[in-house]
Every structure is written in C-alpha cells, then in structure tokens.
C-alpha cells in the first residue's frame, strides 16, 4: 500500500457502498438484459470510484 503524500485532486470517501447496474447493448438489434448486477464500491470521489 502506498503511504506517501496524497497526489489525488479530490478527497476519497472510504466507506463500502453497494451499487446495482445493468449492462445495455450498443446495438438496437440486440435485446437488452433484464438482469441486474451488484458491486461493492470500496471508495469513491468526484474523479472516480474503486469497486470489486
């Protein structure tokens, strides 16, 4: 783990959150899936997020 000075522009919140998402097809011919997936967000900020 990196222990040097913080180089990120935005502060990160390190608290686990659960997010649900659905992958959409890029083609009009393909049927969209009704399935939802879940991930655990480990930390997030204005500039991005880290999830598992």
Characterise this structure.
- With 52 residues, the protein is mainly β.
- The chain is built from no helices and three strands.
- The chain has strands spanning 17-21, 37-45, 48-51.
- It has a three-stranded antiparallel β-sheet, with no helix packed on it.
- A hairpin with a 2-residue loop joins β2 and β3.
- The radius of gyration is 16 Å and the shape is elongated.
- The two termini are 17 Å apart.
Give a short overview.
The chain is mainly beta and 52 residues long.
Order of strands in the sheet with most strands: 1-2-3
Report the total helices.
0
SS content category: mainly beta
Q: How are helices and strands ordered from N to C?
A: EEE
Cα radius of gyration in angstroms: 16 Å
List the helices and strands and how they pair.
Layout: E1 17-21, E2 37-45, E3 48-51
Antiparallel strand pairs: 1-2, 2-3
